Structures are given as C-alpha cells and as structure tokens.
Hints:
The protein is built from five helices and no strands. It has helices at about 1-10, 15-40, 50-80, 90-115, 120-130. The longest helix is centred in the middle third of the chain and has 32 residues, at about 50-80.
Amino acid sequence: xxxxxxxxxxxxxxxxxxxxxxxxxxxxxxxxxxxxxxxxxxxxxxxxxxxxxxxxxxxxxxxxxxxxxxxxxxxxxxxxxxxxxxxxxxxxxxxxxxxxxxxxxxxxxxxxxxxxxxxxxxxxxxxxxxxxxxxxxxxxxxxxxxxxxxxxxxxxxxxxxxxxxx
Length: 166
C-alpha cells in the first residue's frame, strides 16, 4: 500500500522502495516460518484427513506467497529501473492487489486451521461433544488423527475420553 500511494503521489525514490522491501521481507519470513512449522509438525500429510487438509491449504497458500514474493521482486526491479510512473503503474498495482488477496486468504486460513482446529474454539467444540468431534449421532466415532499425536506434543487441555481410546 505504501508503494502504491508513493507512486501515485509521484514519490519514486524512497517510499515505494521501502514499501516493497518490507513486504518482500515479510513474504520471506512467512515462508521460513512455514518451513519450520512443517519440519516440527508431529503429523504428516498421510496421517489423517486433518494432516492432508492442513498441508494442502497451507502448502497452496505458501506457493502463492512464493509467487507473490517473486512478483514483488520483479516489481522492485522495474521500479528501480524507472519503469513506473504516477500514470503508468498497472504492473505494480496488480502485484499489490494480488498480495492483498494472499493476505486475506491467510487471515481466513489462520482462523480455520489455527484458531478453530488448533485453539480454543476447537477445545470448546471437543468438550461440548465429549470428545466426539464429528457429531452426536456416532458415539463410537474416533478422531482419526489423535493416535498420531506424539505424547510430548499433546496440549494440556487434550484429554481423550476413555470410550474413545484405542
């Protein structure tokens, strides 16, 4: 946003370059954090439905972040060469809109993957159904993923009811 506002205000020196550099740095840091998270996860893509969905959603998002970061680097190079002006900056504007779209998708994914399935909302749901996260109609249903969680990584609130233990 800073880069876009600076270009429109005919500030081609510091504003857009700093804006793009900060955004590129954020993209690189995000990617490195995702790589670290994948390395330390106690489940894999083939362990369960949750693992498959988790890696699919975050993997596709990570790929879009990489594409966006490369596009930002190309836009930075074009800005450095003076190819953008206050009247001609569609490439930069499209890149910025793409990056904002990736941001909005991440907020949605974070809410679904980390807040709902990994946080207090999931804890509430899990306790509400007495450990049966699928529905009250199947009292013998077992979460397919709980057998794969390493004992030292089990959250303090996670207690599997005796009737669901394998």
